[in-house]
Amino acid sequence: MKKITLLLSLLLFTSNVQGSLFYDINTGVSLFYQNKTQEAKTYFINYINSNPSDKDGYFWLAKSYNALNDTKNAKINFKKAYNLASIQKNIEKINISQEDDSSIDDYFDMAVSYFEAKNYKEADFYADLMLRLDSKSKSAYYLKARVQKALGNKDKAIEYLNKAVLFDNTFLYTNLAKSLGVKTAPKATKEMYDILALESLYSGNINNAIINYKKFLEFEPDNIDALNSLSDLYIKNKELNKAKLTVEEALRVKPNSIWAYLNEAKIYELNNPAKVEPTLLKAYKINPNNKEVILKLGNYYLLQKDFFQSKKYFENLITIDDTSYEGYFGYIYSLVELGELSKAQTYIRKMNHVKQKNGEIDFLLAKICINQGQFISAKDYLEEAIKKENNPSYYLELAKINYLLADFKESLNNLEFVSSNNEAKEYLIKNYIKLKDTKSALEVPFDKDRLIYKYNLYEIYSIRKENEKAKALLKDAKSKKPVSEQDYIDLAQINYEQKNIPSAIKTLDSMIKKYPNSKRGYIEKIKIYFLEENQEKLKETIQKLQEIN
Predict the structure, then answer these.
(1) Within 13 Å of residue 389, how many CA atoms lie on the same side as its CB?
(2) Predicted TM-score of the model (pTM)
(3) What Rg do the C-alpha atoms of the chain give, in angstroms?
């Protein structure tokens, strides 16, 4: 593990090599501890002018400003110090960057070093930093107990030792516990159960977390945060009846609790999907600027394929928070599905500056390419996305493209990574038929009300040379008039497979006339013109698709 440089070694035992000819950081530290704060500040300003990359100089300059009640300059220099030490720049809640390989152990090393050098003020400071990173750090509490004992504050030492014992009762057998007369674990308090619940939750022990929140609520039955946390845990544990009762109790305590409504929506997602939307809209009415509610609504409409509504909520989200990756992704995805490709590309560039997650940008670029008839490029983007993340959605899109490109074996391979939804089943059957594996094709359950169902059977029986059955099935498949969008697409596919391209195009034109705001008909035409290598018609259809919105 890469360690943060120990300040102690610099301050007490060595001179800074860079500044040795002009400024020694120890001189400034000595001034600071002699309460010559103004002189220390001036000294450290000169020091960092000579050593602009030394985090320790900025650190002590910040402490000097802070001692002089100049909080503005103190924060500026603390940020510089923490940035140079590869710590995420957030003074209010110091956190280790996920991209950095430092950890809470770095602070522990520094705290122990200061303690051993009898610099208890700094040891306590770094123990506090540990607690900002992990409020349940038993090592930090134990170290703070040792500091207070060394300073002669027995009551404070016992208080911190008891907190350490909450997480690890082996501290009862230490010399510190013996010297302080601490022989038993502290009596249960609501704070103790709150901490234990959090510790259990973060360690993945949901059952223990539930037990501790229930004990906490015995002390404070109307604590809204504990009620919401408990209902959330019940949902995670699939105890939906208990979750529902706890949500109802939370709403009794606080009728406008957004968290409670979000938990209720989670319950309905699992047992009553029709109630998800109205529940989320109740939360939205309470606070239309709540980012979590807006994100939930955007994702809900995305799943329902109501892209006009999802676009609305995601646009709202990135207006409120222009750093929301999820907001950008949902908004761009909605734009792509609505055919607003130019706008989508503009926002992809913006999203790319926010944060890149897995293969999602590549996936969005693939979707744009599909809408533009660039299926080879789309395939490349999807393969790149899959290298970064095994997402079933990526594999399904890739399976569809490989089928279009007549790579049926590869399309089947892609579908191995996809759950058995209706679209995956459809392409499984198509691939099996193309590969003349009629047995496997018949084993895939499929919607018998689809027009394409009878045609699939026709192809199967044709392969098996059962010509009379096949002939009857083809006649039946082609005789039914389309009603829904899917019917039109199915009939167009049947005509295309029968090499009747004019009829396929005519069917899709009828669909577009009936559903003028739908892009599905245009997409199917793009596929046909791509396969037929009709560049003029392909370009014309892509242009119309981009104009429909």
Answers:
(1) 15
(2) 0.50
(3) 33
